[in-house]
Specification:
Layout lengths: L3 H20 L9 H16 L5 E3 L8 H12 L1 H26 L4 H7 L6 H5 L2 H17 L6 H18 L1 H18 L3 H8 L3 H10 L1 H5 L18 H8 L7 H17 L12 H16 L3 E2 L2 E2 L6 H11 L7 H30 L3 H6 L6 E6 L18 H6 L2 E2 L11 E3 L20 H4 L4 E5 L2 H9 L3 E3 L6 E6 H5 L1
Parallel strand pairs: 4-5, 4-7
Antiparallel strand pairs: 1-6, 2-3, 7-9, 8-9
Amino acid sequence: MERPKGRLVLAALSCCLAALPFLVVKFPPITDLPQHAAQVRLFGEAINQPDSPYRIQWMTPYSLVYTVLGASWLVFGPENAGRIGMLIIALLWIAMLHLLAARLKRPALAASLASILFFGHILYWGFYQFAFGWPLFIGYLLLLRADFRNRWKEALTFSGAWVILYFTHILWFFVAVAWLGVTHLFIRRDIKRLFLRALGTVPLFALAAAWYPNLAAYGFKSQTVWATVPFERLLPTWLADASFGGLKGALEPVFFGLIVIWVLLAWLPNRKGFLARTDKSLLLLSALFFILALVLPDKHTNTIRFCQRWVPPGLALLLLGLPEIKVRKSALTAAVFASLLAFFALTSLNWMAFERSELSGLGESLEALPQGPRLIGLSYMKESAIVRGRPFIQVFSYAQVYRGGELNFSFADFGPSLVLYRTPRQLAWTSGLEWFPERAKKSDLLSFDYALVSGDDGLHEAIRRDRTFDAVTSAGRWRLYKTVRNIQE
């Protein structure tokens, strides 16, 4: 049996190591981070300026994470709000895993190893709400095991939990409702308690039904995409991508392999009496997450990586639910923390290299902006040599974080957002330029006062020769330009 003090030390060490990548850079490679941080500024404008073009969508089921980002903005300033906000969520992720392990008497080292699963595609794409929902869902799991003597207090407590989960991320709300049904219909077989605990979901389902049509009004819809079929998702390459999927290179496949080795070491020597040494409810919930990963589409209603996002929490629960590995405790502890140190050190080096090379010139460009600019962002660098996915598509949104103003694309155009335009914008420029900058026309550029452009030296030389622009900054991959219209004025 692990002592509380020992568990606390392991949790603290895990948190300290996980904080390292966030502390060594100013611009972490998190795609949607600047757009989420910009929402905090727009929230302030909507509250404080009656003639603001923005309104607050109080009923969106994705708003609670902005309490973390807002607090980070107030304490650490706008430049650090997104980065520190995600760091806080990472620490919550790890702390709640260790708390769950402690409450259920599961191996603390398994929780420490599971901490690296935060550093995957959920983080790198910047799925703030979904990432924040995971530690809150763990709190819900602990609540399910609480012993209530007063039934009305139980009903009110669960009603509060439903509200928190709903306003964090509607997917976590739906999964929590589904898990409640599974536990009370098939495990506890307690229909009365199921009804009592589920009572508070009724108004939230009604709220969701009333709110959902608003998405279509803001164009939040897309074709459902099945890029892979279920049997392909059983391949190690797909599972490794779904478990991590953030950095290029060998780092993530190697650590996915280490997790597989951990699972085998926990299973094979314990085959006799395996179920008696496991937490069956954690394994069942882990299986539920993996089923979601197998059967859900890759993209639905503009929600990308719709199926893959369930693999990291499913794998974390699997690690906690398995029996303790039969290896000398001191040796296993040393091996786990040597692995964590290597993982977070290499992650930090990758983040530093990304900032130094692929975001060079960004800081200088942002500092050169005036207050309230109208700015178009064009990233002709579409892919990174270090980070997977499309890490540059929202980088220009840092302009709104730093200086406010208006962008060619904002999450205020995005139906689920907390802050929206009062009236959906009728764009006078080509839409989708954050994804396809090559479609930009001269008329698009002249709709704005400034352009934040990324590219190689050849591209920037061509821009300097074009009389559409006047360079404000002259070094780095990211450079700031004034448009000719702005100069003439």
